[in-house]
Amino acid sequence: MTETATPKRRRVPRETPGVPKTKPGEPPPVVAPETAPDRTPHPAPRPKDAPRTMRDLRLARSSKRRPQKREENPLREGLRLERVPDPSTLVLFGATGDLAHRKVVPALYQLWRTNLLPHEFVVLAIGRRPYDDATLRDELRTSLEKYSRVLPLDEAAWRSFSSRIRYQHLDFADPAGYDALAKRLAEIDKEQNSRGNHLFYLATQPSAFAEIVSQLGRVGLDHERHEGGWRRVVIEKPFGHDLDSAIRLNREVGKVFRERQVYRIDHYLGKETVRNLLVFRFGNGIFEPIWNRRHIDHVQITVAESIGVENRGAFYEETGASRDFLQNHLLQLMSLVAMEPPATFEADALRDEKVKVIRAIGELSPDEIRTDVVRGQYGKGWVAAKPVAGYREEPEVNRDSETETFIAARFEVDDWRWSGVPFYLRTGKRLPKRATEIAIQFKEVPHRLFKDSSSEPDPNLLAIRIQPDEGIMLRFGAKVPGLGIDVRSVTMDFTYGSAFSVDSPDAYETLILDALLGDASLFTRADEVETAWGIVTPIIDSWANDDAPNFPNYEAGTWGPEEADQLLKREGRRWRRI
Ligand code: BG6
What we know:
The chain is α/β, with parallel strands linked by helices. The chain is built from 15 helices and 18 strands. The two termini are about 20 Å apart. 6-O-phosphono-beta-D-glucopyranose binds next to loops.
């Protein structure tokens, strides 16, 4: 059964202070940048093909390009207020590295291509290699041809985007380089009239974070000015290696930037379906009353990857699944499922509620770690009908490695809403497929009425598919057509692809745009990061004191070690087959 939403009434966007109201049927208004002078009068009503972004507006004014009429999906019409960031410079540290090439630059290109960046935007790429602008642009183009989510490249968009990219050579540990950087930024600000708006994006090795931040502070690049000019820093994960190092790093960053200037990335929070979880829970009236211990039996969160460690053996040896996934992605997903409704949709209101959940999980005792946490490491096996090597045979991996590539854990949230409801979390590399899913398993009906049915329907289940095939599925019992009363489980399915017929943006597009707009809702706050480490660090420490694990303990291409199944079986449950 497929459910396709057909709105009866078109939704009117919520009114935002300073933003003109949109009437049904009208396109969304252009919102003036945060610190720029209000150059945009707020006309009403606006024609259907009115410019939608500041860039469109400027181009239309100078008659360089007629604004194009967009074919809107009726389900999306009138739903979005597109804001364009202030004129600014994104200073990309680690610009020659893997993350910049695979994720950050493709996201920036896509934002530029879709007119979501201001025209006065510069990417100042920082690296240690002796490049010039042209070398870097050539390299980035080659990567974009591989990693851009929309191919082939749009030549005109690439030409204009690449002209916004500049290269600056800098050795992270050399103070003179930061003086030169400050000078270069001042020149760019003058040339672009970008008023000192700088976003520092740290896509480097984590070991360089503290040094870069402290040098930025030394040359005054953290200072926000009264007359405009914001300064923000985006820090990639992993944020610390354990609780102590995370506290130290937060302290170092806090010496230079104020918390509201710091944007810690967990890219799972930028995924469209993860953001939809908030809308699903708090934008609908019917789920909230049953979202608790009275109706929910347990929750399962699975993040399965079919890939191995690829070319990141050295990194993964230091990390393992607990640091790479549990401390961040999995606990973040769990906090979104379990949090109370925030009073407002503002960054701190949202993060206050998330951190309460993580606090309510509390530290597991050594006994609980032994019984409720399972670790695994893949041996050789078959994935997608191809033979693959075991973890210990991967490049840059120790032949006796004790690093876990799989973790499953049972947590409880000790609060009024969730007391006694287990949350089972699992993640692993080299599992049979790539799939991320949150399954809310409801309780059985209190009284079985249809005892004569030839089969018993399963209790209701809500499965939120984060990726791939993004969507939501509800399972319920239905009568099989016929004279008797036979009840079977059927499903009602919502899929993003068929409902909205648009591609979702990549998580990095969402997050970079939010950081440029100054919206920190989807970034993790210092206390969240530390609280999450407070759960993971005792687990890692306890393993360090245990006997060597019996690794490898699962074959590549299977769903992890047998103990992960036991974790649920002993309580009469099983992992959902995904
Ligand atoms: C990263 C991890 O944070 O997320 C990787 O470091 C992992 O190990 C990746 O492969 C998965 O991201 P996604 O978006 O493909 O699910």
